[in-house]
Amino acid sequence: MTEQVTAREYFIQGITRDGKKFRPSDWAERICGVLSCFGRSKVAGPYAHMQYSPYVRPIQVGDVKCVVVDERLREIEPMAFDFVINFANDNNLQLTEACSIPDAV
């Protein structure tokens, strides 16, 4: 049996280090939208739709908006990775290093 290696992820929470809710309320969608061009789209031309990157995606944890950043983005586009992590640090957002656990099938 082979061991599956899970990539590390960084969870940027929409809560500042001093406990305040980060504004604007759509900050996570904006950050992920900026980096959506790094995703893998199967559709091209006039029927193409914006898709969030699999490496930077918005999620909701309870009532807190978050952005999950896959560390593999650093290998693909280091400047994009730095941009997102620096955004979190510059805005004093809580940043946690972890990994997602896939749902059981």
From TrEMBL:
It holds the Pfam family DUF3579. It comes from the Bacteria. InterPro entries: DUF3579. This is PhnO.
